[in-house]
Amino acid sequence: VTALAEAGPAAREGTLVVTLEPCASTGRTGPCTTALLDAGVARVVYAIDDPTSTGADVLRAVGVSVAGGVLADDARPGLAVWLAAAETGRPLVTWKFASTLDGRTAAADTTSQWITGPAARADAHDWRARHDAVLVGIGTVLADDPTLTPRLGTIHAPPPLRVVADPDGRTPAHARVLAGGATLLAVAPGVRAPAGADTVEVPRTAAGLDLGVLLGELYRRGVRSVLVEGGARLAASFVRAGYVDRAIGYLGPLLLGAGRPVLDDVGVGTIDAARPWQIEDVTVLAGDVRIIARPVREG
Ligand SMILES: NC(=O)c1ccc[n+]([C@@H]2O[C@H](COP(=O)([O-])OP(=O)(O)OC[C@H]3O[C@@H](n4cnc5c(N)ncnc54)[C@H](OP(=O)(O)O)[C@@H]3O)[C@@H](O)[C@H]2O)c1
Questions:
Q1: Which pTM does this prediction carry?
Q2: Centroid of ligand 1 to alpha carbon of 149 (angstroms)
Q3: Confidence bin at 299 (pLDDT 50/70/90)
Q4: Greatest CA span in the chain, whole angstroms?
Q5: pLDDT on residue 113
Q6: Ligand 1 center from residue 39 Cα (angstroms)
């Protein structure tokens, strides 16, 4: 819609080349099909079918020449997050953690800064910048008082929405996560959050807030990718519920032997019940190791 507005009369009788099938529905902008017809575009070439809309049919019905599926395999990686979210109706979830070689994220006295070095931290901030939202549990806010903004990396995208799963509204009014930028506190119904904080009410389950409802709320607000940055309790709930699509783990060359584990109980009592994951990438970042992995899903 923006490109057509900028092209103005130059778009008349023109050909539109896009990665995704133009939509026939109203999202953040009006239907792309309406904008194309208003602009007088004669031909549309696109790579990937939109699983949520049928814009190509609408255009063909009124005489626009449409070619779909062109270079689809080349276009798919760039649309992977959007497509995955469109198929599931929830944002793509990446769980990020930093741990010692023995899988600890904080020492016995709860100190946790810094497990990894500057290169790994800058890389983690780049991943933050690539996500629409960053989510932590209230335990992490109370323990670390994080800002959750991308500050160290090289990617300068609009900062992600910061989200705190905080059933009882325990986020302190002076918490750094509430300063400078957009933050959403997910609280249980009827709970009062600090004055001025943007909140969303999410029903409780035995483990905490209902993560399916929370993800649905975020999707409704336009969030298509969420980086879950801990802690162990919130991450375990995500793993248990099967909502983690990918993990990015940074391993620092330290041993603690005691302290907070990277993940709380996920209901695995015996090795046969262990959850299978597949390693996608291993990269050494100036002395730390970054592992990207995906759960192996049946079917
Ligand atoms: N190295 C790392 O990568 C890393 C990253 C983050 C945190 N950490 C460390 O992890 C520690 C904090 O982790 P944590 O496990 O104690 O707390 P957490 O996972 O950050 O937060 C847990 C809290 O989130 C709330 N919550 C809401 N919905 C939930 C759900 N569905 N499932 C689980 N929790 C839900 C609950 O609050 P209520 O209790 O109010 O119900 C719960 O107690 C700190 O020591 C921090 O330094 C390390």
A1: 0.90
A2: 18
A3: low
A4: 69
A5: 84
A6: 51
